[in-house]
Amino acid sequence: MSRAREFSQSIHGGHLTRRDWLFGGTGLGGAAIGMRGLSAGQPVSSPGTVLGRAKSVIVMFLGGGPPQHETWDPKPQASEEVRGAFGTIASKTPGLFVGELMPRTAQLTDKIAVLRAMVTNDNAHSSSGYQMMTGVPHIPLNAESAISKPPNLAPHWGAMAKYVDQQFGALPQAVTLPNRIANMGVIPWPGQTAGVLGPQYDPWLLTCDPSQADFKIPDLALPKEISGRRLEKRLALLKQVNRRAGRVADSSAVSRLNRQTKQAIGLLNRSKSGSVFDLSQESDATRDRYGRTRWAQSVLLARRLVEAGVSLVQINWARVDKEPNGGSWDTHDKHNDLLKRYLMPWMDQAYSALLTDLSDRGLLDETLVLWVGEFGHTPKFNARAGRDHWGHCFSIALAGGGVQGGVVHGESDDRAAYPVSGRVEPRDLMATVFHCLGYSPDTELHDTTGRPLRISRGRVIEQIL
To answer: For the chain, which residues make up each domain, given as ranges?
Structure first.
């Protein structure tokens, strides 16, 4: 392999040795400059294709799996062991009935497209979640407590959004909050990082509790021993060093580092970024509308983040202490009790508040909102009055960002167990999300070795656009 090729690969992966620096600064920096195009996705579309114009995505990820029967696909004619204990209510969409525990959401279905036949064919939290967040099936399927390792290193949708959006501002382009998803709280699911794209594209994980009265981000402040004046001196010195760095300073790796440095400085300056995280700027009425729980206030924070220019925010369901399975949607026991007592009311309140808030602010048309989990639940109750994992057919919902509201795509059988029509997969969802953001599924990204990969091998779900 030529030295130029070695240098190109090293800068693409974001790793520069001292020898690379010397090499890049002695006349072959052009090789590095020539690789710059590999660090940005190039939109590719068929003639006549009209891509979306959404600017941001908010992913509401209901970890544990929201049940299709009690939400978007009730089966009132089925036996009680299938339909469950709850009834249905009419929605704003003629002919669409939803579960009775989501009355606020029912009045907003004219803004929502429902997919009733999503399929992962995977009944494990970890591996089915990986597929939902990457659009790539885990190898093998049904792998519980799987971790991030080859061959399962497909990038998270936030990482891909970060890759294609090269406009580095004061805030990261992709944020995950208020916690990482992990089995038993300690085994992180795969699919939550940039994977093969490299760690520079990892979404920013913000572990926080915005519901706390003293909520703040500790890392957005200078250490006590460093004054603002001292920071200014350090930045001046950095500027002098950069001017003397020569051609290597034009390499993609160094350019990327410079952007990240500027972003970090912007965060420390707290001018724009600090105010984004200051929920005290919201009225009590607005905060109450979302709900005062950790998860609900994270939803409100997500709205503020996209309003400030973040491309993709994923809000993971927050742990609820002293509740079964950490208070998640994994309702193997006491399914009806948990849904009625807090799962559905909290979701219904925050989800409806977000859609209404975005609409009132004129942001819904440019913000795509996903309502998803890793799978659904079994058609029948188990012996413990719960529902188990089910990835063979479940429901998700999309709103805003170019999605046509008042639409139901797909149909399940009489038990909401298997698709009858309109079957879609996570790869199709991924294709649709990036279509709404203005990128064809064929858009090429490049991994840390320079190999191309497509955003998705799925198809855009035209029926909801």
So the answer is: 1-34+222-269, 45-215+279-464
Nearest Cα to Cα of residue 176 among 117, 127, 123, 129? 129
Average pLDDT on 117-139 reads 98
Q: How many residues does the chain have?
A: 465
Tell me the two tokens of residue 432.
């649709």
Residue 213 buriedness (CB in 10 A; 0-12 / 13-18 / 19+): exposed
The residue behind tokens 């089966």 is: 75
169: which residues sit within 8 A by CB, 6+ positions away? 263, 266, 309
Look at domain 45-215+279-464 and name its CATH class.
alpha beta
Per-residue b/e over 186-199, b at no fewer than 16 CB within 10 Å?
eebbbbbbbbbbbe
pLDDT tens-digit series, residues 372-413? 999 999 999 999 999 999 999 999 999 999 999 999 999 999
Q: Tell me the C-alpha distance between 252 and 200, whole Å.
A: 12
Q: Which residues make Cβ contacts (< 8 Å) with residue 187, sequence separation at least 6?
A: 126, 145, 147
Q: Report d(CA 347, CA 423) in Å as an integer.
A: 25
Q: Contact 397/407 with Cβ under 8 angstroms?
A: no
- Provide the percentage of residues in the chain whose pLDDT is more than 90: 73
128 phi, psi to nearest 5 deg: -70, -35
Asked if residue 389 lies in contact with residue 122, where contact means CB atoms within 8 angstroms, the answer is no
Helix H or strand E segment including 382 = none
| Burial (CB count within 10 angstroms: exposed 0-12, middle 13-18, buried 19+), residue 399 | buried
Cβ atoms of residues 452 and 443 within 8 Å: no
How far apart, in whole angstroms, are the C-alpha atoms of residue 392 and residue 64?
A: 15
Is residue 222 a contact partner of residue 231, using CB atoms and an 8 Å limit? yes
Contacts of 458 (CB under 8 A, 6+ apart): 135, 425, 426, 427, 428, 429, 430, 431, 432, 441
Sign of CA dihedral 402, 407, 412, 417: positive
Dihedral (CA of 322, 327, 331, 332) sign: negative
C-alpha 354/C-alpha 299 separation (Å) is 7
Tell me the whole-structure pTM to 2 decimals.
Answer: 0.85
The partner residues of 377 in beta bridges, in order of sequence, read 389
The mean per-residue pLDDT over the stretch 30-42 comes to 37
Pairing of strands 367-372, 187-188: unpaired
Rg (CA), the chain: 23
419/415 Cα distance (integer angstroms): 10
